[in-house]
Amino acid sequence: MAVLINDTCINCGACIDECPVEAIVDEDDNPTGEEIYYVYGDKCVECVGHHDEPACATACPTEGCITWDAVGESPSHRDDISDDMRSDHTPVVE
């Protein structure tokens, strides 16, 4: 992962069109089976080279819905995000 959509997701779709690398899928294509949107960690680049911060999080109307997560297989990630912020799942936008 890189960013994570948690269970406060209301499936509004605001995030999906903002993703420059098409890393987000809706609840119908969520591989976990949960009824929320999902971010593929091996595609998410945390908008590095595209936006100043992850565009999905700035578009999301639900406070705290999109959080930092472990870098994992992410092809690119933000170096200024601490391990604590990732392990604590700190909201990307507060």
General description of the model:
Residues 74-94 are annotated as: Disordered. Residues 1-29, 35-71 form the 4Fe-4S ferredoxin-type domain. This is 4Fe-4S dicluster domain-containing protein. The relative contact order is 0.27. The protein has helices at 55-59, 83-87; strands at 3-5, 24-25, 38-39, 66-68. The two termini are 20 Å apart. The strands form 2 sheets. Strands 1-4 form a two-stranded antiparallel sheet. The longest helix has 5 residues, at 55-59. It is low in regular secondary structure and 94 residues long. The radius of gyration is 12 Å and the shape is globular.
Give the arrangement of secondary structure elements:
Elements: E1 3-5, E2 24-25, E3 38-39, H1 55-59, E4 66-68, H2 83-87
Antiparallel strand pairs: 1-4, 2-3
Mean pLDDT equals 95
Spatial extent as radius of gyration: 12 Å
Please work out how many helical segments DSSP would assign.
2
Termini gap: 20 Å
Low-confidence stretches: none
**Major sheet:** 2 strands, antiparallel
Query: Percent of residues in helical segments?
Result: 10-25%
- Major beta sheet, strand line-up: 1-4
Q: Give the amount of beta strand, in percent.
A: 5-15%
SSE string, helix = H, strand = E?
EEEHEH
Q: Which structural category fits the helices and strands?
A: little secondary structure
Number of strands: 4
Q: Identify the overall geometry.
A: globular
Biased composition (Basic and acidic residues): 75-94
Region (Disordered): 74-94
Pfam families: Fer4_7
Keywords: Iron, Iron-sulfur, Metal-binding
